[in-house]
Amino acid sequence: MSATRQPDELPFAEFITLTALMISLVALSVDAMLPALPAIGSDLGVADANHNQLVVTTLMLGMAFGQLLYGPLSDSTGRKPAICLGLAIFAAGCLLSIFASSYALMLAGRFAQGLGVAGPRVVMIALVRDCYEGRAMARVMSFVLAVFILVPVIAPALGQGILLIAGWRSIFVAFLALVVVMFLWFTLRQPETLRDERRVPFSLRRIAAVVVEVCTNAASLRYTLASGLVLGAFLGYLSSAQQIFAQQYELGGRFPVYFAVLAVGIGVGAYVSARLVMRLGMRFLCNVALLTTCILSMVFLVWVYLQSGHPALWQLMSYLMIVLCCVGVLFGNLNALAMQPLGHIAGVGAAVIGSIATLLSVPLGMLVGHSYDGGVLPLTLGFTVLTLMALLVMRSVARSDV
């Protein structure tokens, strides 16, 4: 399929950049905090180092619930008011984290940040769906992901730098300043994409009906479940990455460098996807990426077991680079596949898809991350099992011309 409508008042490159920054606020909110997890836990009295991972997963949990609000709201009031509301709630969550005196308050602030960041995260996808469909949408989302990859490359180093100079609370101050800039840029430059005649009144009954439609649409539901399984494995990696590299492999302050190198793998996957998706199709690319990840993880799982959970660093880096490259292929394409039948309910559809995928991924990611025992066996097992399940779900979807 071709694009249905181009964003008339915003140049394409600026549209891609702004969309990528809005969506990447999630990654920034996670990745910049990773070097600070031990300091946060120490200052706020966390006894178990694995519990520091809640700084990551609590934000994702808030995002899962927030997505159900912003999609319907954006279908009623337009895309811009919903995104602006999300940015405001995110800013409030930053303030709560800045002044948190306990770990519980810190997590409350993180939940509010997740609740807020869901606005730009899900509504920007609906905004893209307003302008593009089919493979053209997948191409745009792949380019967005390619720009977005700059954030996880630099975010841990940014967090590390702020941590060394001004402490972990200043990371939230930086978040707050950035969100103000994004709010002004978006408000002044991005035109509204949802025409008045396409808007519908906010209705809980309509939301329930859309949930039923998404859940009874076999293709959308199964692609959403596959996305949630992949995201769960990836969240397990994010949650335990700081412990694995900084502590297990004793990299300390060099952790952001290694994390950035691996983040490039996602960008490579997104770039390859953007170049090939119009010719090969979304489903083909997803099947190849899942099959590669699953087989490689099975082989590496045996090796990790033989190495008592501690393979050589170069071996782990090589494995994760390939896996994350496949993840870069999967994220944009699985979401586009799930959204493909839902153009008539793009706002609520994107919300439900995002919420289901994230709600599935959070407990799975927590299970993988909290299983960390000083070795990488739980992480490798998580990628093996979850990508195998995602592959089986993908194979159960009837073939279609996408």
Outline the structure in words.
By secondary structure, this protein is mainly α. The chain has a single domain (12-189, 202-395), classed as Growth Hormone, Chain: A. It has 15 helices and no strands. It has helices spanning 12-31, 37-43, 54-77, 79-98, 103-131, 134-148, 150-166, 169-189, 204-216, 218-248, 255-280, 282-306, 313-339, 346-370, 377-395. Helix 4 (79-98) packs antiparallel against helix 8 (169-189) and helix 12 (282-306) runs antiparallel to helix 13. The radius of gyration is 20 Å and the shape is globular. The N and C termini lie close together (8 Å).
Order of helices and strands: HHHHHHHHHHHHHHH
CATH fold annotation: Growth Hormone, Chain: A
The dominant shape is globular
CATH superfamily: MFS general substrate transporter like domains
| CA(first)-CA(last) distance | 8 Å
Show unreliable segments: 1-7
Number of domains: 1
